[in-house]
Batch of 2 targets.
Target 1
Amino acid sequence: MSEQQAYLLLIDDDESFGQLMVRALARRGWPVERLHNANAVETWLDVPPPHLPERVVLDLNLAGDSGLRLLPRLREVLPDSKILVLTGFASIATAVDAIKLGADNYLAKPASADDILHALDDLEPNLEQAAPEAPMSVRRLAWEHIQRVLAEHDGNISATARALNMHRRTLQRMLAKKPVSR
Amino acid sequence: MSEQQAYLLLIDDDESFGQLMVRALARRGWPVERLHNANAVETWLDVPPPHLPERVVLDLNLAGDSGLRLLPRLREVLPDSKILVLTGFASIATAVDAIKLGADNYLAKPASADDILHALDDLEPNLEQAAPEAPMSVRRLAWEHIQRVLAEHDGNISATARALNMHRRTLQRMLAKKPVSR
DNA sequence: ATGCGATGCGTCAATGTGCCGCAGGATAGA
DNA sequence: TCTATCCTGCGGCACATTGACGCATCGCAT
């Protein structure tokens, strides 16, 4: 029988983003299989198909980082696949965790299909990566800190606000605007 | 023969910060060996001492080339040491690379001695339980960060505001009121 | 003397934050 | 099933902070 075609497994529960991505990836020659939520991934992992994906994009945009929980088993079932973690709430803490848990790369949304494919291909650490010209802005620092504490509290906004001694409403508003550039 | 004492290797070229850290770590029971620049690290790596450090703190802000470059050899010479990468210019990209290159953890400045020791001890990815530490409030964190950057710029408010990508007037106002609050 | 950048400060409009309240969802126990 | 609790998203409003602009002053090197 003929060799089966390589494909990409997209784990993502954002419907519109997911469909867009499927199309964009297909246009670039990647057949995409999709899983829409953590449960689907669990059952998929319980009985993996004979033909395994060559690449995996794991979106952990869900409340809390339950997506990270899936990583170890994913890596176990797919020792040779390239796994990319994608998130709209990127932080250094979760990036570090993701790599430790076996991800090959980590990307912050918004990311284009090209960004994603590039991140999956270009896995070698860049030694030249000089330090960015400026220190972290206060905003970025605050964002990182909040993400860390949020993670420590399993994504519980109220508890995080209490721990941070800030108002729940304020935290909520901060989290509502996704991109914290600088 | 007597067992030699575990010690920590601090690789950092910021004189004031380094001395502070050495003292703070000593107060917490860690003898510290220090290397002040990339060259010193190179020669140290060429002829490592018989008694190797148990923990390493590598500051990426080494003058000249990136401290990231040193990581692979460090890891090679010290397969069993805990290596923490510390940087005032944190970014997700360098965090990912640092972990890939063998760092056990990655921390952004400003970081206290306690932060550092904690980061060196708590290497497990944050899946299950959260560290029960009391998080700093965002305000206090911001204040400390500002103080640090301000110091790095010799107290130059305009330059600091530029580096932090914030308004000079705003920085000025923040500094005007002393109460650091929480 | 002249130019340049840093500093302190006033003002005003645009944003952000503290605080209150409410409705809906999830959950644990009676 | 009913109920008490906790969390969440969100509207609204008064007050606080920030961004942007301008201006006078000061130290310093040319």
Note: Chain A touches chain B through 45 residues (CB under 8 Å).
Target 2
Amino acid sequence: MAVTLKDIAAEAGVSLMTVSNVVNGKQARVSAATRERILRIVKDRGYVPSASARSLAARSSRLVGLLVPAEGEASLTIDPHTVEVVGMLERELRRLDYHLMLRGIARRKEITEALKSWNLDGAVLLGFQDAEIDRLDAGAIGGVALVAMDSYSANPLALEVRSDDFGGAELAVRHLVALGHRRIAFAGPGFSATGVVRKRYEGYRKVLAENGIEVDDALVTTVEIGHDEGLAYGRRLARERPDVTAVFTTADILAIGVIEGLAAEGRSVPGDVSVIGYDNADIAAYVTPKLTTVAQDLPGKAAEAVRLMMDRLAGKERPERATALGVRLVERGTAAPPPRRGGSGR
Amino acid sequence: MAVTLKDIAAEAGVSLMTVSNVVNGKQARVSAATRERILRIVKDRGYVPSASARSLAARSSRLVGLLVPAEGEASLTIDPHTVEVVGMLERELRRLDYHLMLRGIARRKEITEALKSWNLDGAVLLGFQDAEIDRLDAGAIGGVALVAMDSYSANPLALEVRSDDFGGAELAVRHLVALGHRRIAFAGPGFSATGVVRKRYEGYRKVLAENGIEVDDALVTTVEIGHDEGLAYGRRLARERPDVTAVFTTADILAIGVIEGLAAEGRSVPGDVSVIGYDNADIAAYVTPKLTTVAQDLPGKAAEAVRLMMDRLAGKERPERATALGVRLVERGTAAPPPRRGGSGR
DNA sequence: CTGAAAGCGCTTACAG
DNA sequence: CTGAAAGCGCTTACAG
């Protein structure tokens, strides 16, 4: 039913090989005349090469996996910030004539299964914890070009692409300090889960130290990313730590929850408390007041991921160090000078 | 390098065929004893069947395409509402041992190319306009099970999955009428683009008619979906139609923009004007006041899409009529009785 | 510049 | 219950 190389070859009166060479653009090997003729037939008949046959016969499948954690029976959780990266990844890959296979990973061995089964040329690991990247072992990965997004794993098997998390935190906390804040809280998921959070925490500490502000560990709180979690934390903070005048948060959705929690306890943002988010998700511009946040270079991240993967596929050496994509502070309405209090100051 | 059927067969001292039968669970064909032995070897050696070889040799690729429009050089635009469906689709398919290929479609013929190239068993068309679905032609589609999401196309080549758009609009507008509104505007993208909008418009008209409210075409406005578009429309509405006390919108993001535009012109929601959105996106719960909106049954939509596709793949008859997934009104803070005016009433 | 042969890793009838 | 043969649609060396 479907038209094959053989059909084209028969119609053109040449061998399979010649058609194959033409279709694959190996110009030097075929005369211009027969190339034209073959190309015309290919077009007329609507010939499209079989990717599975190619994948089987050649070394390359031109298929890249997009692997995303999926807990048990749950469906993939792709946050808005991530989904943008997915779209950009797809476009970059498509430009290069690669295809993207989206796969949820419930158990660890599914990573290797996906790689083997479809003979993937490469894979992007999106949203995995550093510890999971660490555990990848060479035997199972084979020659697949693996890119771990937002990872600080030391596993040499994976190429790493990430933003300048340390710098992003510096930007946010410096802004807060410049505004006059001294009691600045830090809220984000546990450090062990992702190096991203640790780096941001380190950036936070550095700026405090630079400014002679003592780090108060009671102000550093583990809060899972989510609106409700942020809300609960915001309420607690308002009740238990009225001295805190600013919060730096590792995600916009968390920040938005915090603001709502603060408000629920009668504290206004940014009048009483300043809040800074992270990611500059669309939503940051829709809430009231609009969220001050740290923006990542998402297109840069996607492009870099694909570039690294292609370099690796082309046999290039792994770069000495992971590049950190740029980051910038987006000032909107949730950061302002601290309120003047009854002179407690510090 | 990779272990193949042949390797397993050699180690087990049986033929390729027998291993194939075992791996594919054709129980009746192999004795329990040899099956156990083969399974053990498969596991020990970490054998994973080659999907491309299978796809080539068998009729089925067990691959489903997720086709999403991508204009020119742009990357896919997957709105938050859509991305949830993607995650759920992936999960359902994964359960059934299918894989999902994500593909942006810039030019129409890329649809057929994707189908042919990867020998897809099925494809889900997400976000295409009805007119594009209409244009699909049988030759190119072959036996692929096509599911068009949110489509009202009459093309028999595609199975259709959609929400009860008519009913959703009824719910929203009835709520508004019950609250006492008579001048209710409708804002959404052009009707021709998607039947979804048309159905919602029809639901809107029906409820007005039911309640003896004359439909004022000047109150029906084409507004592309987007925050800024909504904002601009909200401002215009506030300036030009102060008599309007309620707006029904075909998307949450649009509604949020409208609210902001109204506010920019000094009109409060829901004090002066009520606004109802559509989709119940996460964001609806984060804005202030929280958005009243129509929720779709997203898990149901994804499950239905997969069910229809599998039925089709199993050779079942196409159902008589497309099922419309349920819909419900989520009452939050943006719909209230109209303000009492200087007695204009109507 | 062009082609005949072998093989990629499977499945599908068909025999026994 | 088990197997030998053919073939899916391509690409890769290797010849000419």
Note: Chain A touches chain B through 54 residues (CB under 8 Å).
